[in-house]
Structures are given as C-alpha cells and as structure tokens.
C-alpha cells in the first residue's frame, strides 16, 4: 500500500512538471501592472438601471431624436453580464447610425473593449473593431494592446493578427509597445504556416511593411523585405488594384522590385543590420511560385478585362510580370553578396521578435501607463463637464416647460375671464 501511495505521488509530480511549461507559454506579454484594471475601475461610477436606459434610448429613437454620447457611455459602463454585452452591441450600432454618431467618446470605446474582455466575449470586441464603420469603434494604442495581449495569452494568433490588421488600417503603430506586440503576433501567426487569402496576404504585408519602416535594424529590415514580398505576390497574381484596395499602401507598381531594393540596401549598409534566413527563403519561394505560374497568368488577366481602361491596366500588370526573370536573377546575386558579407541572420524572424519582446517590452510600458493615467484623468474631467452640461440643459428644459405651462394657464384664465 505504501508503495502504491509513493507511485501515485510520483505520477502527480510528473503531471505537475509537465503542465508547468504550458502555463508559462500562456503568460501574457504585458505585465500585470499594464493589464491591471485598478486605474480604470477607480474612475467615478454612475450606477444606472440598464433596462430603464434601454427603454429611454428606444423611445428617444422612436421619436427621431438623438441619444447623447453620455447615455450610451453609461450603458456600456454599467454592463454586468455577457447578455448585456449583446445589448450594448445593438445600441452601439444604433448610435453609430444616428445624428450623434461622431460623438462616441474615446472612454466609451475603451470601456467597451474592457467589458468584452472582462466577460469573456472579446470576439465581440473584435467583431465591432473589424466592422468599425458600422459601430464607430476606433481604439487607442493602449486599448489595442490589451486586446492583442488577450489573444496572445491564449495563443490565438489568428485573432491577434485580426486586431493587428485593424491597427494597420488605422496606421497606429506609433507606440513601441504596439509595434513589439504586433511583430510578436505576426511572427507567431506565420509560425502556424497559415493558408492566406489574397486579403490576408495583403494585410500581412502592409502591416509588416509599415512596422518595418519604423526601424532600421535586422528586425525592421527583415519586416520590410517580408512585407514587400507578401504584397508583391498579390500584385503579381492579381494586379496593383488588388494591392491598393483596403490597405494604406502606395499606388506604385513593383513591390517585388522594392523587396530586392531592401536587400540591396542591407548589402550596401555598413551597419549591423541583417536579413533573416527564413525571410529570404520566403522571397525565394514566392519568386519560384510566380515563375512557375507565369504561363497561366495571361488567362486570368484576360478574364478580368471588362473595357479598354481595364485592358490597359492589365497590360501594365503584364509588363510587371515580365520582369520576373530579372527579379530572380537579381535575387540570387544579392543573396550571394549578403552571405559573403555575413549579413544573413541564422535566427528566425519569430525568434528575433520573441527576443525583442522579452528585452524591450517592459521598458516601453512605463510611458504607456503614465500616458494612460493622464488620459483617464482627462476622461473623468470631460465626463464631469458633460454631466454638468446635461443637468443645466435639463434644468433649462424644465424651466422652459414650466414657463410654457404657466403661459398656457394664463391664457386659459384670460379666456375664461373674457367669457364671464
């Protein structure tokens, strides 16, 4: 019996030991201080009955009148369950399609994302973010970071990249923390070897290119090269119109050529910047695939021709595709130069961005938190002013109503006296 107990203890110990790495892998990149809700929940609360608020908004909309930004803010702030998140989504949509749509407050957007995270329905936040035109959800960097980190924690890199895609659309890679989280997300997403649609390839390329332009080191230059590679593949397969649609990209042909220009720049740079092996291999694979598919590209472009204007555009696309053999030759030549100069980094892109996150993310959090605390104070002050203005308007409206009633009563009395 004693031996049996020892055996069970050993088995339990092995199980605990095996589970530890999984727990570590699920840790969020952001610190506990960054994700802590203390500052946000420390804002002065305005408790409301959501049923009464919903009834008020419904009756206001029925009267073809606008709902105030303060009302929708109160509704979102007082969410206390998953079901109420669904209700809030509906009213955010209604508010976006009302005359007051431009006045959705920044703190309401932040509160909406936090509530979705709190009640375990962050996909709702992602849905409204992906359909921002319909809901008016345009988060700041701090809010973006919180949502990205939640998906990274669960190793859901596909959803995390969907958030990064929205950061790209808003061109909001200004904060170092957002850049690091986004690069880490892209690295993790690519490591899953996803099958990318045209839209996903374009978005991935655009995000990498925009982030890569922010820095001139190995990660930045590799991101530029990889970004141009993804976009160049879309351009070669579908034409420049497919590149420009839905992404903040330049309407200039030759993204594969610009990828090679990045390689030439690194080769000519006397600094320490290198290009990772896996990124160079990716460009090599794309060039090979495009070269092997060049015979069928003519048929696809012929199907796309609809008028003379489209035909001329297709001719320009074909002219770019005709440069492929030259691109392949240039790639081999420049890669040889890079290898000779020792400017090919053996570590993978994912390994580099993981090391960057471990090394630099904590240093960037301090400025973010200080800025966030300042914005929370500004939000509180703005909300206080709105409440004061609301009370003044209600008092004025009540005074005008009383004056109208008094005037009506006086008029009725005068008429009664006249009849007598």
Automatic annotation (TrEMBL):
Cell inner membrane listed as a keyword: no
Pfam families: MRP-S27
Places the protein is found: Cytoplasm; Mitochondrion
Listed GO MF terms: rRNA binding; tRNA binding
InterPro entries according to UniProt: mS27/PTCD2 (IPR034913), Ribosomal_mS27 (IPR019266), TPR-like_helical_dom_sf (IPR011990)
Keyword vocabulary terms for this entry: Coiled coil, Cytoplasm, Mitochondrion, Repeat, Ribonucleoprotein, Ribosomal protein, RNA-binding, rRNA-binding, Transit peptide, Translation regulation, tRNA-binding
Annotated region described as Disordered, given as residue ranges: 290-322
Family per similarity comment: Belongs to the mitochondrion-specific ribosomal protein mS27 family.
PANTHER family per UniProt: MITOCHONDRIAL 28S RIBOSOMAL PROTEIN S27, SMALL RIBOSOMAL SUBUNIT PROTEIN MS27
Name of this chain's protein: Small ribosomal subunit protein mS27
Organism field: Muraenolepis orangiensis (Patagonian moray cod)
Organism placement in taxonomy: Eukaryota, Metazoa, Chordata, Craniata, Vertebrata
